[in-house]
Design brief:
Blueprint: H1 8-27, H2 34-40, H3 55-85, H4 87-95, H5 98-102, H6 109-113, H7 122-142, H8 150-169, H9 173-190
Helix pairs in contact: 1-3, 3-4, 3-7, 4-9, 7-8, 8-9
Length: 192
């Protein structure tokens, strides 16, 4: 979107995106209604089309925003734990943390939405693929040199799947035990 940074229109656009990104992760694609997002953002429904040509355009952009926000938090966690434990352990412990289990609304959109992506429009699926590739690149950057490149995709799938199953079990002892088992397994398999 061609809007100068810091303009009122850009700030409004960002507020809509931030709202949609939170709602998208919390409720899934079907939970994102234009009227509801605009209301939650403190705006009228009529102003939506000044910012997005369609609901799908909003979904695609909100998915990218959610991924960028999640990636930034994960990168900070990796950087904070890297010196003490190494980047791979920091990644695994952050992604499979009890905090991430409890925070679908602000957590990784890949874990929150992966199963719904195949049924979305082309632009939304493309945004989802971008987020998956970004997660795999983040994983690859934390792995030991010489580990096969395909391993990053496998680890990303294990991270996402473990978090999804833990969330299905609930933010409780069962869900936390599942995350702990997944952390142990990944660290035993891929940490030197």
């Amino acid at each position: 979107m061609d809007q100068a940074p810091g303009t009122r229109k850009q700030r409004t656009h960002d507020r809509i995106l931030d709202t949609a990104a939170r709602v998208l992760r919390a409720t899934g694609f079907q939970g994102v209604g234009v009227a509801d997002i605009m209301k939650r953002a403190g705006l009228t429904h009529g102003g939506f089309y000044a910012h997005f040509p369609s609901r799908d355009a909003l979904l695609a952009e909100a998915l990218l925003r959610a991924g960028e926000d999640s990636h930034a938090r994960l990168a900070r966690s990796i950087a904070a734990g890297e010196k003490k434990d190494g980047p791979f352990r920091a990644l695994v412990e952050s992604y499979l943390s009890d905090r991430h289990l409890a925070s679908a609304e602000s957590g990784c959109p890949v874990a929150a939405l992966a199963s719904e992506l195949p049924r979305q429009s082309d632009p939304v699926r493309a945004a989802g693929a971008t987020r998956v590739q970004s997660l795999m690149a983040t994983v690859a950057a934390t792995m030991e040199p010489g580990v096969a490149a395909e391993s990053a995709g496998v680890v990303a799938a294990q991270l996402v799947g473990a978090l999804q199953i833990a969330r299905a079990l609930g933010d409780n002892a069962k869900g936390r035990r599942h995350l702990a088992a997944a952390r142990r397994f990944l660290l035993e398999q891929f940490e030197s």
